[in-house]
Task: inverse folding
DNA sequence: TGATGCGTTGCAAGCAGTGCAACAATCGTT
DNA sequence: AACGATTGTTGCACTGCTTGCAACGCATCA
C-alpha cells in the first residue's frame, strides 16, 4: 500500500541472500541509487541493516533481537516449554514445537535429543511444509477453502522417495490426519529420520500449534517411535488444556469439531 | 532520513512489547489512525506483522525467518561451530559465541551443557553487556573514542553484588581485559554462574567475535573453571586462524596491536 | 595524471503519503 | 431492541515528502 515502505522492506529479504552493495540494491529494487541509499540509511538508523567494513550492507543485529522478542511473546511457547522438556526427559529424543502463520510453518521451540546423534533444525527456521508431521496437523485444521488455496500454491520438492509428491496427495494426507488427530513423517524429509506429532488446540478447538518427537533410524525404528504416540498425544493435550484455560481435551475419540466458518485469522 | 519508512519501522519495536491495536499504534507514532493503518498494511503484506483473531497486531513470522537467515549468513558462526562443539565435548559445559554490533552484543551460537543443570540464554538474545565476559572482550577492542562513547551511554544494572557498577569501573576492567587477552565473569550476572572467555580475531587483528565457557557453581568452582582457560584460548585461536585464512595467533605473549584509527564499521 | 567506478549531496518537480471527515461494524448499555 | 460509544475502514483534496537527475568527492587502477 505504501510505496516507500514497500521498497524499504523489500531490501531485507534481498540482503538475506547475502551482503550487497548500494548499486546492487538499487538495481534489484529498480530505483535510482540515491533513493536506495536513503532507504538503506533509514534501515540502518533502526539497526535493521548493518554496514560492514567493505561498505556492503547486510542484515543487522536489531532484526535478530526483535525476532527473539517476537518468539518470546508467543504465549503457547511459554506454556508448552516445560511440557516439552518433561517429554524429552521421558523419551530422550528431539522435541519440536511449531506454529502456522500465513503460508509458513516454523519451529518456535526445540529441546535437543539426549542421544549423541542429533538432527539438524533450528528455531525460527521455516519447516518443510509438505512433509513435516507438525505442518500436516497445522494445515489439516485450516478452514476448507483456505487449506485448498494454500495447498495449491505450494511446491512439492522430493526430498526423498517418500516425500509428498503433489497437491492431491497432500490433500488426502491432510484429510487422514484431520480425522485421526495425529500425524507422522516417516522418512519424507530425511531418509533416515521419523517423526510423530500431535496437535495443540486453543479454547475454540482450533489447532494453534503442533509438537513432534523426532528420531533417526539408527536410534529407534519407526515402529518403536510410534509406540511413543500416546505419550506425545497426552503431552499435547496437557498443553492444550493449560493453554485454553484448563479444559483438558480427550484424545480417545476421533477429534471432531464442526467445520469452522472461514475466519480472517487465527493465532 | 525517510519519514514514512522511519514511522513504519518504529512500529516493530513497539509491537515487540506485545500485541497492540490500531489506535494504540497510531497514538504511539503520533499519527492519524488512517496512516497507521496503511503502514501496518504494508508491514503485513511483507509478513513482518501479523493480525491475530482479536484484530490486534503482533510481530510476524517472516521477521523470525529473516533473522534466522541473517545469523546463518554470518561466516564467523559457520567456521566456529565445529570448534565450539568439540570444546563442549572436551569440557561438557555450555559454550557461547557472541558478536558486537552497534551498541549491542548478542549470542549467535550456543552449545548446551551436557550437565543436567543448564543456564538460561538464547541465541539472538542481547547479552548483559556490562558484565558478560564476551562483551568485555568485544568492547575492549573498540577504538578508544568509540569505546568511551559506548561505555558512557550504557546502563549499569546491579544484577548481583559483583556486577560492574559504573562506567569508570567498566573502563578499567576493559583496559585490563585488553592487555591480558581474555576475560571472565565471576557471578556478575547470576550469582552462581561463572564464565571464561577468549577473543576471536580477524585477519586485521581486530576482535570480530568472542567465545565463552559457562558453568554454575554447583558443577565446578570458579577456580576449576579457570583451569580451562588455556583450552578456551586455544580453541579461540584456532577459530581466529581459520577465519583470517590460516594465520594462527599466539596467545602466549600479551596481545598487542596498534591502536586502530577509528574506522566507520567492522564486521 | 587521467580515467573509471563507487557512494554521496542539493535541487526542482511531481507524485505519493497525510489528515480529515464520513461511513461501516461491532459491542455493551439502557 | 434501539441506542450511543468505540474501533476499523475508505475516498478525497492538499501538502510535503520522496524521487531521479546531475554534479561532486573520493577511491582504485592504468
Result:
Amino acid at each position: 500500500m505504501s510505496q516507500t515502505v514497500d521498497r524499504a522492506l523489500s531490501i531485507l529479504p534481498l540482503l538475506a541472500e547475502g551482503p550487497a552493495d548500494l548499486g546492487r540494491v538499487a538495481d534489484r529494487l529498480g530505483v535510482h541509487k540515491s533513493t536506495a541509499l536513503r532507504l538503506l540509511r533509514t534501515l540502518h538508523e533502526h539497526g535493521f541493516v548493518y554496514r560492514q567494513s567493505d561498505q556492503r550492507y547486510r542484515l543487522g543485529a536489531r532484526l535478530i533481537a526483535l525476532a527473539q522478542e517476537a518468539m518470546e511473546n508467543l504465549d503457547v511457547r511459554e506454556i508448552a516449554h516445560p511440557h516439552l522438556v518433561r517429554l524429552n526427559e521421558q523419551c530422550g529424543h528431539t522435541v519440536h514445537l511449531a506454529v502456522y502463520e500465513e503460508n509458513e510453518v516454523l519451529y518456535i521451540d526445540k529441546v535437543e535429543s539426549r542421544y549423541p546423534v542429533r538432527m539438524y533444525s533450528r528455531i525460527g527456521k521455516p519447516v518443510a511444509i509438505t512433509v513435516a508431521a507438525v505442518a500436516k496437523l497445522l494445515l489439516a485444521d485450516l478452514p476448507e477453502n483456505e487449506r485448498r488455496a494454500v495447498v495449491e500454491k505450494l511446491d512439492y520438492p522430493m526430498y526423498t522417495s517418500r516425500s509428498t509428491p503433489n497437491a492431491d496427495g497432500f490433500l488426502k494426507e491432510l484429510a487422514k490426519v484431520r480425522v485421526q488427530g495425529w500425524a507422522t513423517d516417516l522418512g519424507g524429509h530425511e531418509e533416515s529420520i521419523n517423526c510423530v506429532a500431535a496437535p495443540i488446540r486453543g479454547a475454540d478447538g482450533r489447532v494453534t500449534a503442533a509438537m513432534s518427537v523426532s528420531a533417526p533410524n539408527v536410534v529407534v525404528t519407526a515402529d518403536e517411535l510410534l509406540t511413543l504416540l500416546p505419550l506425545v498425544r497426552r503431552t499435547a493435550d496437557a498443553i492444550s488444556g493449560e493453554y485454553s484455560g484448563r479444559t483438558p481435551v480427550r484424545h480417545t475419540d476421533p477429534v471432531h469439531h464442526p467445520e469452522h466458518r472461514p475466519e480472517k485469522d487465527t493465532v
